[in-house]
Amino acid sequence: xxxxxxxxxxxxxxxxxxxxxxxxxxxxxxxxxxxxxxxxxxxxxxxxxxxxxxxxxxxxxxxxxxxxxxxxxxxxxxxxxxxxxxxxxxxxxxxxxxxxxxxxxxxxxxxxxxxxxxxxxxxxxxxxxxxxxxxxxxxxxxxxxxxxxxxxxxxxxxxxxxxxxxxxxxxxxxxxxxxxxxxxxxxxxxxxxxxxxxxxxxxxxxxxxx
Length: 210
Fold this sequence. Notes:
mainly alpha; Chitosanase, subunit A, domain 1; 3-stranded antiparallel β-sheet; 3 strands; 3% strand; globular
């Protein structure tokens, strides 16, 4: 069986993230290539083997960003133990965009919609992976897309300051659904019911919430 490969997902993430941004309204704060300053400071030594200086953060290369993506992928997939490429990408997206909360949401989805009894702790281990691997991938993917869409709408409703990012979040989610349209076996709009058609915009408007 061909294993999922994080490298297939790297171009998608980098295309949507853009470069250095310091938007005071963005809850993620200062970011570069989608990586927050806080994440860089905490993980630069472990992931890149370098000191997390201001210069290093602002001049991060795509190759370095790819190493961060692999770090998030490994954490989200229990070191690449998820069997399906699209599911591995979706879980990594939740980890990349929402951190531990995103992984907790994935576990909660497995409990709520598929009858699992997983600890909702944001730690992806053998039990979570085994549960995910037992589910028909198109079914799980469609539920994940629908749950992520609902999360974005709820976030904008709870925190109106984030509402201006909503269009970018939904565009990105629609793009992800389009990427796996064959997996979904139908128009992905069915699963992302309020996603607008892809619209051009600056990378600053097309960011995940961190």
